[in-house]
Each structure stands twice: as structure tokens, then as C-alpha cells.
Amino acid sequence: MKTIFKWNYTLLLITGLALLAPTVSAQQDSSNGTEELILTSLPVTFFLASSLLADTAINVRNLPPRGRRLNGQANYFESRAESLAETFNAAIAVITIGKLWRDDPIFTAVRGSNIRVVEIDATKPWSSTLEGVSIAMSPRQDASWMPNSTVNAVSAATPSLFFWLSLANANRSADIIARDLMRLLPDEASQIQVNLTTLRRKLLDLQHRYEIAFLEVPDVTVFSLASELVYLTSDLGLFVDGSFYKQDIYWTEDDLVGLSNHLRNNQVAVVLHKWEPAEPILNAIESAGASLVVVETLDSGIVESGNMLAESYFLMMEANLENIRAALAATSRN
């Protein structure tokens, strides 16, 4: 029987729904045009903005309402520019990650309808002296069964977009967004500052709790099948003993045998992936006596009643950390 650790939508929803109701209501009501509106397009920016603007007169709305992964956002905004024009015109600011993700489409889409809108970049302040979030390069493949020339040919180093998989980065991003919101909304500045303190404590508590938990695990060695997870593995101090990033349909028999042998020969008991892979890959992991952890990349969130929940980022991040901890702890007991 395969051992797979992955997040449970139903459990997360039950755990967090009571906390989320006010934020969901604010998102649903934000189209009435009676209050000022901030737009986001990612779980992390939606969570941070909603937390920072709690108990203020400002609405936060995520587009698309259900959320959409990075590779589907451009088409959404391009195809709905006309129908979203009223919403765009109501926005006083858009929170983007444009300085890291140059193709971030939301500000361009909103700016086409609303010349007054302000861009707040969550990854780097509009300053020559203040620091932004820490940036990691997408890691190259490092698979023992692949020739070095092949490894270097298939993986060019580029900045990884998934900065939010680091809790330290989420905290820094909260500071960046809060600073701009307080300047943009001076009447709400004192409440935003209070909310920032609460938010930072919440993120730091989660980070510290799992830093301690991972210190209690004798072996934090993993194998990675997803380059997007570099921020998470670095933030947690995990030792990544090899990586392989082929799409499932391109795996060969040599790849399956190579993965299984690598895991067995190097005594790697935990494999990380961003989805549950095809059956042959699962079998290769299982035959080596290893467990799979499915890590949510958090560019999409939890949807309830047609809207992404504002706490999606936090709930799913916590689930990611717990699943990795549980998998590593289970291997140490075997």
C-alpha cells in the first residue's frame, strides 16, 4: 500500500471556515462600488491584504474569484477585460508580484480601464534602499542516473516565482504591502499597523513551531520532483539529495529504475512532488520503501461558494509543513 501525504480539503475547510466568513463576505460585497477596493490575484497576496485591512472600510477582492494558477491568469484577464471594467474602475490599488514575475497580468489589465490605480508590488518596495523578498533560482536537476551534460542542458537557472513557499518571505511581503497601504490610506494607517503586528506574529508562530518540529526529526533528507519547491526546502533546512523534473508522460523505464535505485541506495525515505504522479512513478517510489508528500504550490487556493477563501494561503501552508513533518517523522520510526 502506497504511503502518500497530501493536504485534505475537507479538513482544512472545517478548521478554517469560521475564521473566514467575514473576509468572504467582504469579497462578495465588494462589487457594489460603495467602498474602496483593493485587487489581488494570488492566495498569498489575498491573504496578506485581507489580514492587513481587517476592521477597515476597505474591501479586498481576488480575481478570478475562485483563483487561478499562474499559467492561466493572462488568458483570464485578457478575455474578461470588458466584463471586469466596472470592477477595475472601482480599484484604488492592485497588489502584484510584477518585479519578480514580469508577466504578472493583473496591473496591466486594470490599468487599461483605470488610469488612477496604484500598483503595490508585494516582492520589492518602490525604493532604492529597502530590501524585497529573498529570491531563489530555480534549481537544476540533480539525478544520479542522468549524464551531467543532460542535466545541464535541460535546466537553465532562472528566478523561481514561488517566493511565498518561504514563511520568512511572506512576512517580508506583509511589511512591504503594509508600508504602501499606510501611505495610500492614511486614515486607516493605525489599524493597518495593528493588523501588521498580529499578522507577523501569526506567521512567525507558524514558522517557529515547525522549525522546532523539524529539529526533532533525526533525518531531513528528501528527493524533489518539483523545482517550485526550492523556497520551501531552503526555508525548512531540508537536505535535498537529488532532484528530477520531467513531466510524467516523458518518464522512461530508465528514469523509473534510476529513481528507485537512487532512493534505495541513498536511503532517501521521502519524495516531494507538486502533484500525485502517474502510477509507474508511484510504484518506483514505493518499491524503494519511500513515501510521497504532495506539496501544494499555493498559486491556487481553497474555494467555497464560488470564492477563494482569504485564509487559503495560511491553511494550506500549514498543511504542507505538517505533511512533510509527518512523513519525515514516520520514516525515523521505521
Automatic annotation (TrEMBL):
Q: Which residue windows are transmembrane per the record? A: none
- Keywords noted in UniProt: Signal
The record, for InterPro entries, names:
Bact_metal-bind_prot9, ZnuA-like
Query: Which residues constitute the signal peptide according to the record?
Result: 1-26
Q: Is Transmembrane helix one of the keywords?
A: no
Domain of life assignment: Bacteria
Q: Which GO terms describe its biological process?
A: metal ion transport
Q: Which GO terms describe its molecular function?
A: metal ion binding
Name used for this protein in its record: Metal ion ABC transporter substrate-binding protein
The organism encoding this protein is SAR86 cluster bacterium
Tell me the lineage of the source organism.
Bacteria, Pseudomonadati, Pseudomonadota, Gammaproteobacteria, SAR86 cluster
